[in-house]
Design a protein that fits this description.
- This protein folds into two domains: about 1-80, Alpha-Beta Plaits, CATH 3.30.70; about 85-270, Rhomboid-like fold (Up-down Bundle), CATH 1.20.1540.
- The strands form two sheets. A three-stranded antiparallel beta sheet has the order 1-3-2, covered by helices on one side. Strands 4-5 form a two-stranded antiparallel ribbon.
- The chain has twelve helices and five strands.
- Helices cover about 60% and strands about 10% of the residues.
- With about 280 residues, it is mainly alpha-helical.
Amino acid sequence: MQKLITLSSAEDPMPLSRHLWAAGIGHRILPGEQGHDVWLLDVRQWTRAQEVLSAWHHGAPMPKRAPNSLLKVSALVQLWRRLPVTISLIVVSLLVSAGMSYWPGEVLFAQLAFTPLQFSGQYVTISGLETMLASGQWWRFITPIFMHFGLMHLIFNLMWVWVLGGRLEAIQGSRRTLLIIVLAGVLSNLAQFWFNPTVPFGGASGVIYAYLGYMWLWDRRHPEQPLNVPTALVIFMVGWMVFCMTDLAGSLGFHVANEAHLGGLLVGLLLALLPCKTYRR
């Protein structure tokens, strides 16, 4: 994103927002230190946005809106251009969940699990890491992040992928977001398998905790370029992770991939220590 203008706290940003949307210019209004910061979502629209801004300053009438059908298509195209990595992660996760629901579940599960699985009635044989490496099935390092077990698991994880991952990608770009997904996915999966190799696992929780750790530490190291993750959310999510590590959580039926959560959180914190400028692709 790129900041277009800062309006004072006394100014209403909605008239300008209506002008920008009427011109098909995607933007976001965020609270800033001096008032309302208007951020341009696609820097390729910078010249057109400047023209609309100048016209708005001079009291020009609002641009004529395009037909609703064209606006919807344009909005979808802009959304894909802004968030291709986040959207791809969500779509692939939905497709995998649909496949696990409508095909024999163990077939797809066995192909995407961290190590090869063999089903025999009610029993599952889990191969070791050396079997996976020897057979060249390298995709298994990352594919467990696309598998979810149950509707609530899927909805909860994809909601945070959209909220946290979408915000991160919109501000810092697709490359940084993809880097976090790949590193957090692989390393959190490795952590979970290393400490608990006898239980198959899946889910994007490790990636979500990496988002959380990265965004929280980034905000503290770069307050002038914030990602604006709420502190209350960080406290809740970390508290939930700690609770799930207790015997009480297990007795209540909460069986989660604790090592993947912690591994993802640590990956996010470490990546936030690396030098990075705020940019859009």
